[in-house]
Amino acid sequence: MSGSEYRDVVRLENIQMHYGNVQALSDINFAVGRNEIVGLIGDNGAGKSTLIKIMTGVERPTAGNLYIRDKKVDWEGYSVGRAHELRFETVYQEKSLGEKQPLWRNFFVGRQITNRLGFIKVKQQKQIANDVLLNQIGFRGAGIDADSPVAQLSGGERQGVAIGRAMHFDSDLIVLDEPTVALAITEVRKVLDFVRGIKESGRACVYIEHNLAHVHELADRLVVLDRGRVVREIHKGEMSLAELTSALIDLQHAKVETAEAGS
Amino acid sequence: MSGSEYRDVVRLENIQMHYGNVQALSDINFAVGRNEIVGLIGDNGAGKSTLIKIMTGVERPTAGNLYIRDKKVDWEGYSVGRAHELRFETVYQEKSLGEKQPLWRNFFVGRQITNRLGFIKVKQQKQIANDVLLNQIGFRGAGIDADSPVAQLSGGERQGVAIGRAMHFDSDLIVLDEPTVALAITEVRKVLDFVRGIKESGRACVYIEHNLAHVHELADRLVVLDRGRVVREIHKGEMSLAELTSALIDLQHAKVETAEAGS
Amino acid sequence: QSSDKPLGDGMVMYMQMGGNAGDGATLARTTGARDAAKAFGLQLIEQYSAWQPETMLNHFREGMAASPACIGIMGHPGSDAFADLVDEAREAGIVVTSGNAPLTELYNKHQAGGFGYAGVDLFTGGYITGKSMADQGLQKGDKALVYGLLSEAERGQSTLGLKTALEEAGVTVDYLEISPEVNSDSSLVVPILAAYLANNPDVKAIGTQHGGVTAFIPKALEDSGKKPGDVVVGGIDLAPATIDGLEEGWISTVLDQQLYLQGFLPVTQCVLSAKYGFTGLFTNTGSGTVTPKTIGALVPLIEKGIR
Amino acid sequence: MVLAPNVFLGYRIYMSFLITVPPILLLALGLTLVIAAGEIDLSFPSVIAFSGFLFAYLFKTYELTWLALLAALAGGALIGFVNGILVAGIGVPSIIATLAMQFFWGGITTVLSGGLSYNIRAVKETALWEVFVGRIGVLPVQSLWVLALAIFLWFLLNRHRFGEHLLFIGDSAKVARVVGIPVNRERIKLFTLMGVLAAFAAVLLTLENKNFFNTQGQGFLLIALAAVFIGGTSIFGGQGSIVGSFFGAFIIVMIEAGLVASGIQGFWVRAVVGLVFIGAVIFHLLVENPGRLAALRRLLRRDG
Amino acid sequence: MVLAPNVFLGYRIYMSFLITVPPILLLALGLTLVIAAGEIDLSFPSVIAFSGFLFAYLFKTYELTWLALLAALAGGALIGFVNGILVAGIGVPSIIATLAMQFFWGGITTVLSGGLSYNIRAVKETALWEVFVGRIGVLPVQSLWVLALAIFLWFLLNRHRFGEHLLFIGDSAKVARVVGIPVNRERIKLFTLMGVLAAFAAVLLTLENKNFFNTQGQGFLLIALAAVFIGGTSIFGGQGSIVGSFFGAFIIVMIEAGLVASGIQGFWVRAVVGLVFIGAVIFHLLVENPGRLAALRRLLRRDG
Ligand SMILES: Nc1ncnc2c1ncn2[C@@H]1O[C@H](COP(=O)(O)OP(=O)(O)OP(=O)(O)O)[C@@H](O)[C@H]1O
Ligand SMILES: Nc1ncnc2c1ncn2[C@@H]1O[C@H](COP(=O)(O)OP(=O)(O)OP(=O)(O)O)[C@@H](O)[C@H]1O
Ligand SMILES: [Mg+2]
Ligand SMILES: [Mg+2]
Question: Start and end of every ABC transporter domain (chains A, B) (predicted)?
């Protein structure tokens, strides 16, 4: 599938998103190339999560078009399940684990390993889940295994499971909405290594993060959202971390001033 | 109340915590002085959140004692409400906002401004809530005011509200469990300033954070938890940030090795 | 052959009582059965089915499993539903007898084995009520409301009898079905009847064979601004409120099923047939109506749950 | 209503509603609070029977009036308190606990009353009767009582600390604990209040009927719940509409009466009640969120 | 059971349970899935009536047997599908939608059947009868059918993709959407399945009784729900115990039969059923979590 010819893994065109009266996104154009890591940054409430939710089939925009591998996709047929089939993988900011369900179910839900009748191969799933938990994520916590329900996990452990899941299903586009939140230092490093690995293996990634040091280092291109609009694009090497930081802070000050002037 | 004589705002003695078979905390001793900022660090699942939940009345430990302002407190009578009365304020890692409720209710719930019959002074509450939202937290998001329900907020906005609430009720002890998670740069700065302000106004704070740069700078004393035990205490100036970081990473390696040796 | 021991000593009888323990159409039956059980010294096991026919069938199966001397059944599920079960019970030597709604086919087949009946013929009961209403001054062409439960095949027979009698008298009949909520809690009938009365101010008579509904008709009439006697009311069973209604003249006539007998007689039948092999008796427990004139004497008994 | 204009133009039918609705409304108001707190109470039909029995028995046997009222309310409070202990103290989900208690107290009532109904006609001569179910002109007094209570409960839910606590508990009991609400004590209070309201409904009903029926209350189960849901209170908790339940109670009582008055044939009434019921709720939903219809259309093709 | 040893030592009473329990068990099994998915279905009593009517009518009028069975199942599927559309498509909470549909289909059944019951004794001569409710020796065949279905549904819930989807939907519909489960389509399937199971229960009941009763099914509402809850399935969704419901259905049927057989006076039965019910659930809870009692003690002093 990844062998076929296309330029952008995903492209959003003129996206609008209203929640009732709140306009979360206005006229967004956003594309992710084949082997590109795009950092999405911006203030709280800028619309970052909304944008990726639209991109991955959780929400439907009020207007706009979606192209996947340069082909237009009908919103009607688009959903998280469909995105999975199209080899998009996402770690959402909101909780995405079933609290009462054991880890082995959470790991594979929506993409179970089944026989032809749809019955789940439990043993196999547990084995893989345990393997990922111990070796890839590297849990050493007391008594956590594939059978533990999510409700027993600490905040960081949950985040770890969600990311481990995304790591496992090795996809063409990986979307990460603040993945390092709640993680301890070594785990943060693992995530950063993982993102580097995406790039190396020729795949693409959208990476949302408030820690500018991380995005600045990793991203090929930074897209800055502000109050529902793309206000800036910055290519790798265009700015130093310090310049980037002050540019963003300036942006916010400007915002406050226009808001005050407007009122 | 803060005028009376005491040494530690809060002291936990020989705390044990079991969740079923999982031992989350074993024999913890932990104290916070009158005007001290204690940084609590450690791996995911180390037991940090559990410890502060016990300290602030959410959970009851399996064994151990609690002293507040040097007086022993009976667990039976201890609860989050009681902790509020004792002027403890907490920002929890888990969600602590009622999704369907407007912000003005979330702001004051548990500590409503009422008349003598218990009826809420809605106008006054809304005014204060709006003030805190706009001026203290500094929300500029589209259409967010005291009447918006929490369900409409972005991840960072929620975190902002929880912290704004803690900032407002100016307490003797403020407990922050990963408060900067999900916040944008300027907001992070505000939180850090807030913590500094706690110190300056002579109050105490327990600060949990995976970002070592932040805790290293702010804390008077760092307490390192590992698998439910206090493994290290580090006083301000004892280590540089780099030393601290490598010390923690060493700790984790040691852990992996003992675990492997043990199995 | 007689001894010191009572006649039914050592016998067990499973008996279906009808609705719910203590409801108006059930209580006097329970009282009668208990009195008879005490008198004959047999052990009575009461089964309440909330008037659900399928529950009655299940109760029969459970009763049969205990191999009692007799089983008393309600007629509601019908002869066909009970046929195989009763055959089976007879083979096992259990005496079966029936009440409240007749099972003619089974009666004919098993009478010799002690299958009796104690109750009114439901259709006839309704018919008598209707006749009695017509006799209280209804004219040809008058309009009457029949409020009943035609959706329940057996209980519906009494409604049908009522309707038939009124129609034979030349009265125009409107029919309304009792909803399950009203069926279980009759106070809900008041606004429904009030609405009907407001829309049909010319209605001359209201008839029902539902005990609970009967008790609330006076209230509905009062709330609709009627006076006692404006509307001819025919009902069934002597609930305390119904007695009031009779005494105050709101209710014109009430069928008295003599439910107590429907409890007492099946127990008697059981003992006699099980002990001495008597054949089944077909007893009509009620062919009379109570009117404002005749109510006075009954009140003390009614308050004890006997009449 | 449109189909039977002459009925709904007269005042009498409304007066009859003002007699029938109050007990149901009381139940619906109490249930609104319970459901807003994310709980449910199925035991109230038995409170109607039990408290009604206490009242009628004490009146008939000892000629108590105000004390009988107090005893009835205390009986309701007791049942509610037991529910609260089961739910909050022991942790039995409320739907199960209150269902079991409905059986239990219903059975106890039958045992205590010996299955008998009581006629308490003499109550009409008491001051109690005048105060609670008398008439001012043609207006039944009980309608004023429930109106006052509805207003009070509106303030309790929307403006009082207790109501706010209920809303948060219904939103998420976990969050409620964390913000310092004494979750379990509030739950016990809530069920007790519900018990008292149901007991008051029982007294109104018994007074108005001047009779205690052994089976009274059983028909109210679905009707009172339906009133709450028609009124727009969500089963998911965290939100409750006192005003909605107020109108819901009238609507649910008027539906069947309205259909009957419109001359719809006997057997059809129930099917039409079902249709009107679902229609009202869907109308509600579509008004609140017009996007639903589009969503429905989409669904039938491929799911989101 | 202890109180009436002679009854419960004989095998006959158990054979009688093997006739009584199957329809209730089918309903309880279906409800287990529904409740595990965080929904509820209150419409099944009307499916018992509606599908029973279809079956009896087609058999009586056209002498259809297997086709009548198919029609009955299709009728149940239709009702379930409509429920699903209301809940998943339009977004009506299931408790309201299915309650309204209970009214509606119950009413429709009365209208269609003209309020009549049907006697279909001739069905005893058909192969259909032998296959579904015949006897192997003394063993009622329907007990084998429901046993097989219980095993199948256990695998469906615990080992099949569909069951896992239901568990996640019940856990949190939001999470379920985000992990790529077609939430609404699965809900529609679920309600349809429940409708088919209830229809099968209707056929078993109608065949066994050789009669269709217009009001059949109404008594099953509380019993089937109680079986599920006694079995330990949580009302909060995300978890369901097929095995628990299996035993729950037997327990609930046996409680009443046992009490009746033990000679407890009729009036007491209801109260004792309530006590046994709550006792069983509390026992469950305490075994699972012995800390509860301490919590209760604490509560009565000061709340956590
Ligand atoms: N309710 C619970 N039931 C069972 N185990 C639990 C429960 N809550 C926490 N634990 C376990 O206790 C341990 C400590 O959890 P805690 O939340 O205190 O960790 P933490 O130090 O805050 O981690 P993080 O940095 O990831 O937030 C973890 O291993 C967790 O799995
Ligand atoms: N369901 C909703 N209803 C109404 N408004 C919403 C909803 N979801 C998001 N919003 C609003 O849309 C805006 C954008 O939200 P979004 O979650 O995309 O922000 P974000 O950039 O991800 O912020 P953060 O960094 O805090 O996560 C916010 O102002 C938020 O209040
Ligand atoms: Mg976000
Ligand atoms: Mg934590």
Answer: 10-252
